[in-house]
């Protein structure tokens, strides 16, 4: 069996690491695995999706027209020529709204060659006319017909035109011509939306959780506290690729101001617009090292996730795997990941509840939660079990 995964990135970020881990596991199981991504070079098992120049041009045209996934013609034709040689039995699509693919060319090719297609929903873009998430604005137009988009100036903003209605119609038509499409939600939360979307008639609809590598994320001693000179402090950790409003940066600032005796470590890119920060917030910067990230999780007394929406929330599971309890909003997929014995779920903007959760964990001690945290992750998010679920899915599509 030959499997081709297509994702914007390889190794980098949560989706890149998931792509990498599945690719390596497929090879170890005797399956011919291939990956197409922007940050790889052409080689035996890899296809470079798009050049930097092509991505910049795609980005410009997307902003100009309001149509993401309609350009990168030559890059996509090159990918299709590679696919002619590989002749994959299954193509697995992940994140493709990154100025790197001509979606129409790709999906028509999959239909013409009758290639079973797996669609993993790392966000909601595949069944909307523009946005990646509609929950922030409470929009439900994706269920029937987009248009007059509320978020047209947000994320991949369109400078002039609103083509969200035609974008959604195009996606509906393109996905409908592929004989076998398996749509996989990475949480119950996102999977539930499929039945009301343009993908509702797909061949298979299923939930397969994201996984984590338990050989890399586990309780262990670290030097992080020593390096920041906070060895005796109660440490609250937050992790995000970019600390935007939707990731809860302003809420974390409020909580930090109410608990000046706690130390808050933020891993990720903190924008100038969100500063200044309270003095008890430590900006650790961006890390691409899995080992360093695991050290941050393991050193913390509690992990704080105040994101407005998560399709899965891999950072939450990684923290739990390191024995660190979680305080989070009872929103989106996060509500599936934080059980009572592993931390606290709080109502949105309920700062008293958030602070109560932090204080309770401080009083009881991290060790009171660690065993339950690790057990929950081990039982539900082991990478080998979940990767085997994908292999079984590929076989079902044959």
TrEMBL record:
GO terms for biological process: lipopolysaccharide biosynthetic process. It holds the Pfam family Glycos_transf_1. Its EC number is 2.4.-.-. Gene3D superfamilies: Glycogen Phosphorylase B. InterPro entries: Glyco_trans_1, Glyco_trans_4-like_N. One of its GO terms (molecular function) is glycosyltransferase activity. Keywords: Glycosyltransferase, Transferase. Residues 245-365 form the Glycosyl transferase family domain. Residues 16-214 form the Glycosyltransferase subfamily 4-like N-terminal domain. This is Glycosyltransferase, group 1 family protein.
């Amino acid at each position: 069996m030959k499997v081709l995964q297509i994702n914007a990135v390889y190794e980098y970020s949560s989706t890149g690491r998931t792509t990498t881990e599945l690719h390596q596991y497929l090879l170890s199981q005797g399956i011919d695995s291939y990956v197409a991504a922007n940050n790889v070079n052409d080689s035996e098992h890899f296809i470079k999706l798009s050049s930097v120049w092509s991505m910049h041009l795609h980005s410009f045209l997307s902003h100009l027209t309001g149509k993401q996934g309609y350009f990168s013609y030559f890059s996509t034709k090159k990918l299709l020529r590679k696919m002619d040689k590989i002749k994959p039995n299954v193509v697995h699509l992940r994140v493709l709204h990154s100025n790197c693919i001509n979606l129409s060319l790709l999906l028509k090719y999959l239909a013409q060659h009758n290639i079973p297609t797996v669609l993993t929903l790392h966000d909601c873009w595949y069944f909307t006319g523009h946005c990646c998430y509609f929950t922030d604005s409470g929009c439900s137009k994706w269920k029937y017909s987009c248009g007059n988009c509320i978020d047209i100036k947000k994320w991949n903003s369109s400078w002039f035109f609103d083509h969200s209605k035609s974008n959604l119609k195009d996606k509906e038509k393109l996905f409908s011509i592929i004989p076998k499409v398996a749509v996989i939600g990475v949480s119950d939360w996102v999977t539930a939306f499929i039945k009301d979307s343009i993908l509702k008639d797909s061949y298979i609809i299923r939930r397969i959780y994201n996984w984590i590598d338990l050989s890399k994320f586990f309780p262990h001693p670290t030097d992080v506290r020593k390096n920041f000179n906070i060895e005796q402090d109660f440490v609250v950790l937050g992790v995000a690729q970019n600390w935007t409003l939707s990731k809860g940066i302003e809420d974390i600032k409020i909580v930090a101001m109410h608990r000046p005796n706690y130390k808050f470590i933020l891993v990720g890119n903190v924008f100038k617009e969100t500063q200044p920060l309270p003095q008890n917030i430590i900006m650790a910067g961006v890390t691409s090292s899995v080992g360093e990230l695991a050290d941050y999780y393991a050193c913390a007394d509690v992990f704080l996730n105040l994101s407005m929406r998560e399709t899965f929330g891999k950072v939450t599971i990684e923290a739990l795997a390191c024995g660190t309890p979680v305080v989070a909003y009872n929103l989106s997929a996060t509500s599936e990941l934080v059980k009572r014995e592993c931390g606290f779920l709080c109502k949105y903007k309920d700062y008293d509840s958030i602070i109560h959760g932090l204080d309770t964990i401080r009083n009881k001690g991290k060790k009171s939660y660690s065993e339950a945290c690790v057990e929950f992750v081990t039982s539900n998010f082991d990478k080998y079990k979940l990767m085997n679920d994908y292999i079984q899915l590929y076989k079902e599509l044959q």
